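lol ok so funny story. i was supposed to be doing the assay writeup but got distracted and ended up predicting the structure for this chain instead. priorities right. anyway since i did it might as well share w the group, maybe its usefull for someone
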Amino acid sequence: MTQRWHLTDTDKIALNKTGYSWGYFCRQEDMAIDSVILQELKAACFTYNQPSVRLCVHSSPQALLHEMIIVERPISYFPPHKHKCKGETVHILEGELAAILYEADGRIREVHILQPGNTMLLRLSKDTFHFYMPLTDCAIYYESKLGPYCAEDNLFAPWAPARTDLERAVIFKQDLAHAIQAERSRQ
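and the output, tada:
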């Protein structure tokens, strides 16, 4: 019989508030994740006014495989970046998420609108500048990449606003609206 668990179960989940986004880390190897957990993540994101929260199915930043369920709101801004050592895969579970891929000089190479039942999964190779932007009140997606976590693996685009420059980040995201709209009209 499957036993239901919750984000508040401290014997199964550890909350880490020190990263870019709050991270709930699973304390046990075998975990089933259902819609109740997704709704609890979503509620935590809105209740505590977080730009994003994540459920790390891996046990720690040192794990060799990182699997996360991320709830991200439009107010979030993690700048365009690439990974020098590893690629990543994202799979949309709820809402809509724009995935913008860039050339090294900042020109937009591709725009993907991820949504359940349409383009649902995107695989990115290392060295691909990318940026994710929720298009609904929140987007919930699964992300996987090799571990362990290494901050130096994130190379931020020199042509994009810094993570702390939220005023420029708002303008940056507004400027992406035309590229996103063009992609929507092609779908």
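The radius of gyration is 16 Å. The first strand starts at residue 13 and ends at 16.
back to the writeup now i swear
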